[in-house]
C-alpha cells in the first residue's frame, strides 16, 4: 500500500525532459493551497528522481509566490552547474502558465571530514510520555503527522517566547527520507499564533533548509519520532522569521529558516 | 568622491532590459574570486535600481556555483511574480556563458503591524573600547571593514564554540543601506577556522539573508558600528552551517544563514 505522503509527492513525466507534473493531494491541503512542506518535499523528490542528479540534498530554498490551486502543477528542474562534489539546481513551479513558486537547490556528495555538533537537542521527555495533539480540524495536512508538543503547543499562548518543541513523525509511520525531512521543516504552525494565542492570516513566503543528515543517518533513524524545535527572532512590518532544528537523538538532521507573512487580527 | 563599496557594486546597462553588467573590484577580492558579500550586495543594488521594483528587500538567497573570475559578469534579474505587497525575483549570474551563481529575492512593502524582537543583542563593550583587528593580508575585501571582535577573533581558537561577535562598519565610514547590510551578512570568516585555530580550504555555497530592517531604520543607524554575531550548528561531511544576526543597538536588522564547504587541512 502506498503511503499518503508518497501519493502526495508523486510525479509524472511530461513531453519536456526538465519538467515533471505534480498533483495537489487533498490530504495535504492547508487553509489556502497545499501545505508548503509538501510542495518543498515534491521538489526534492523530483530532483532525486533525475538520472543526472549528483548526491543528496544539501540546501533547498523555496519561495512561495502565490497559492497553488487544487489540481495539477508543473515542476521545472534545471541543473545549471555540476561541480566535482556538488550540483546547483534552479526550480520553477508553475500552474496555468503563471509562476507559483521559485527555488534553488544544492545537492552534493558526502565526504569524510572532521565533524562536530555544537548545540544539544532541546530537553524533552520521551515521545511515549507526551500527549498527542492535533491542529484545528480544517488544517488537513497536519492530520498526517503525529505531533507531541513539549513546549509551545497550538492551544497555548506565550507573551515572550515563540519557541515550539515537539516530537514529530509521519502518520501512519513511514521511514524517514529526504522528502519527508523536507516536509517536516515546515511543520511548525506560525509563531505569531503562539505569541497571541489566536489565529491570524499568515503564510510562509520563503523557506530555506540545510540538510546535515546523510542518507545513512536517515536510514538509521527509521520510523521513530524526530525532535523539532523552532523560534522567531523578530516580528514586525507584516513579517517574522523562524529558525528551527530537527534532531534524531543527538544527530542534528537539518537546520531551517523561513520568513512568514502575517496580518494583525481584525 | 565615490566610496569603494559603491564602485564595487556599480552596474552598467546592456542591450537586454533584464541584464545588467558588473565588474569585479580588486578591493573586494577574496582568496578565490570576489568576496561573496559583495556579489550578494551587487544583486540587491541591481534589483533596487530597477524601475519596476516593489518596496525593499525582505529575503535574498545566493548560491555560489563557481568562482567569478576577475573582470566583467552579467546579472540577469527577472521579476517573476508581483503581488499586492511583495515581489519575487529570480537571479542568474553568468560569466563567459557559464552560470556562476543563482539566486532568488523577495522584495516587499513594509506594513504597520504588531511587532516584537525576542532575542537581545550579544553583550559587548562599546565599539570605541574594543581593539580593531585585521584579517590576514591576502584577504583584500576585509580591509574595507572596521572589525572589532568581542568574541571569536580570527587569531583565536575555540574547541567547543564557534561563535564570533564583532563590531563592524564600512571603512571608510558609509551610511548603512540595504546593499551594505547584505554584504555585512557574509563578513564572518569560516567558523571551521575558529574551531581549529587554522586555515583550511572553505567557501560559502549558499547564503540566505532576511532583512528585518526598514529603510527608515537603516537611515537612523547612519554610519555607526553594527553588532554582528554568528555561530555554526553542525560540521561534518565537508560542510557546516552558520546562523547569524546583525544588530543596530536594540534593533535586529537582519538574520542570516549560510552553508559552507570545507576540506580538512592536509
Number of helices of chain A: 5
The CATH architecture category of chain A equals Beta Barrel
What is the helix/strand order of chain A?
A: HEEHEEEEEEEHHEHEEEE
Low-confidence stretches of chain A: none
Tell me the number of structural domains of chain A. 1
Rg calculated over all Cα atoms of chain A: 18 Å
Distance between the termini of chain A: 45 Å
The biggest sheet of chain A amounts to: 13 strands, antiparallel
CATH topology of chain A: Porin
Summarize model confidence as the mean pLDDT of chain A. Answer: 97
**Helical amount among residues of chain A, as a percent range?**
10-25%
Oligomer: homodimer
State the name of the first-level CATH class of chain A: Mainly Beta
What is the assigned CATH homologous superfamily of chain A? Acyl-CoA thioesterase, double hotdog domain
The largest chain-to-chain contact, stated as pair and per-chain residue counts, equals: A-B, 64 and 64 residues
- Derived from helix and strand composition plus strand pairing, the structural class of chain A reads mainly beta
Number of DSSP E strands of chain A: 14
> Tell me, what's the shape of chain A?
globular
Write the layout of secondary structure elements.
The structure is a homodimer of 266-residue chains.
Chain A: H1 4-8, E1 12-13, E2 19-23, H2 36-48, E3 56-64, E4 72-82, E5 86-95, E6 98-108, E7 116-117, E8 145-151, E9 164-170, H3 178-184, H4 191-196, E10 202-211, H5 215-221, E11 226-231, E12 234-236, E13 239-248, E14 251-262
Antiparallel strand pairs in A: 1-2, 2-4, 3-6, 3-10, 4-5, 5-6, 8-9, 9-11, 10-14, 11-13, 12-13, 13-14
Amino acid at each position: 500500500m502506498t503511503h499518503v505522503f508518497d501519493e502526495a509527492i508523486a510525479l509524472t513525466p511530461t513531453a519536456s525532459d526538465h519538467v515533471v507534473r505534480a498533483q495537489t493531494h487533498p490530504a495535504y491541503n492547508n487553509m489556502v493551497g497545499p501545505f508548503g512542506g509538501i510542495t518543498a518535499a515534491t521538489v526534492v523528490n523530483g530532483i532525486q528522481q533525475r538520472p543526472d542528479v549528483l548526491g543528496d540534498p544539501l540546501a533547498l530554498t523555496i519561495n512561495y509566490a502565490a497559492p497553488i490551486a487544487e489540481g495539477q502543477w508543473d515542476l521545472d528542474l534545471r541543473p545549471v552547474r555540476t561541480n566535482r562534489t556538488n550540483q546547483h539546481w534552479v526550480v520553477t513551479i508553475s500552474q496555468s502558465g503563471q509562476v507559483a513558486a521559485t527555488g534553488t537547490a544544492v545537492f552534493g556528495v558526502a565526504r569524510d571530514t572532521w565533524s562536530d555538533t555544537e548545540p544539544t537537542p532541546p530537553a524533552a521527555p520521551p515521545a511515549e510520555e507526551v500527549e498527542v495533539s492535533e491542529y484545528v480540524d480544517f488544517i488537513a495536512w497536519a492530520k498526517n503527522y503525529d505531533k507531541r508538543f513539549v513546549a509551545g503547543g497550538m492551544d497555548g499562548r506565550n507573551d515572550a517566547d515563540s519557541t515550539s518543541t515537539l516530537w514529530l513523525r509521519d502518520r501512519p509511520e513511514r521511514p524517514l527520507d529526504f522528502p519527508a525531512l523536507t516536509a517536516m521543516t515546515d511543520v511548525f504552525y506560525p509563531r505569531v499564533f503562539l505569541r497571541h494565542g489566536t489565529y491570524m492570516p499568515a503564510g510562509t513566503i520563503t523557506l530555506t533548509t540545510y540538510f546535515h543528515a546523510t542518507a545513512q543517518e536517515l536510514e538509521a533513524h527509521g520510523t521513530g519520532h524526530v525532535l523539532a524545535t523552532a523560534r522567531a527572532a523578530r516580528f514586525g512590518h507584516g513579517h517574522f522569521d523562524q529558525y528551527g532544528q530537527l534532531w534524531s537523538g543527538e544527530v542534528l538532521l537539518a537546520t531551517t529558516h523561513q520568513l512568514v507573512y502575517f496580518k494583525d487580527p481584525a
